[in-house]
Amino acid sequence: MNSLDPTKDIFAEQEEPKELVSHQSGCPDLPEVNEQRSLAEKKHHCCDQCGKRFSNISTLKIHQRLHTGEKPYGCDQCGQHFSIMGNLKRHQRIHKGEKPYGCDQCGQHFSLLANLKSHQRIHTGEKPFGCDQCGQHFSHLANLKTHQRIHTGEKPFGCDQCGQHFSLMSTLKIHQRIHTGEKPYGCGQCGQHFSIMDNLKKHQKMHTGEKPYGCDQCGQHFSQLANLKIHQRIHTGEKPYGCDQCGQHFAKLANLKRHQIIHTGEKPYGCDQCGQHFSVMSTLKRHQRIHMGEKPYGCDHCGQHFSHLASLKRHQRIHTGEKPYGCDQCGQHFSRLANLKRHTIIHT
Predict the structure, then answer these.
(1) pLDDT exceeds cutoff 80 at 235
(2) What are phi and psi of 137, to 5 degrees?
(3) Cα 114 from Cα 87, distance rounded (Å)
């Protein structure tokens, strides 16, 4: 029974050479004898969970909290608990604002010595944490762990609304604004709000008039790089967005989406005056001018106004004499397409 007790085995190993101990006790001046006796006397408290030995009972009790999970020291500010009093005291510096550890390079102060040491790597350029996949190094262990998710594909942060997962907590928080509708970044010029800081910065260029992105073909400038890339398709003729129903291609995704409504027959935009529905929002807005009596397009020849730009262009042909629609049977031209269609009846 005793042979199965690891604690008894530990003590047995120390007590085994009884004759030697008895002999050496008469030689107290031997340094190795004094050292062995000192170690034996100091570490005589044993942990019954892992067998580790300690020199005093208080250290043993602190150690045993690793196994029991006991955390007797609680913070009266936030209720967080700790297994060691020293950890509680360090934590309380957060509430007190106490930052005793100062950087001798820039004067910044920290509440924990570990945080100061991490900060000092900014000045020294030290990057002790290396990725074993690609060899890239980082100054903080947390940054290394985040980086390694690129190789492992790990996405530990999941959205409880739609189940989508992300590798970074910050990316999850930005994503969740889709569900909450939160837009914390507001424009001081017009009051418009955005869910992402980058979108606010792009928007603010509209107010400053800043247009840093220039087209090398025609010199036109844009406030956003995405708008420049879309514009350049005019010169390249690129139309990357194709309709899977008829194969027609478009330079803009928005134009493809508007086109696809033709195939679905969907008309989601309804007029609240007469109930008529339209497939495109811009068509609804033009239609609503009929009810409002709005005529924003004026002729600079006679001052007559129209509710639609197309109507103004047709009208202006009266002044210019332009007749763009020609009959391929007799060559006669007309200012309106409807007039050409009526004319072709003569030939048919």
Answers:
(1) yes
(2) -115, 155
(3) 13
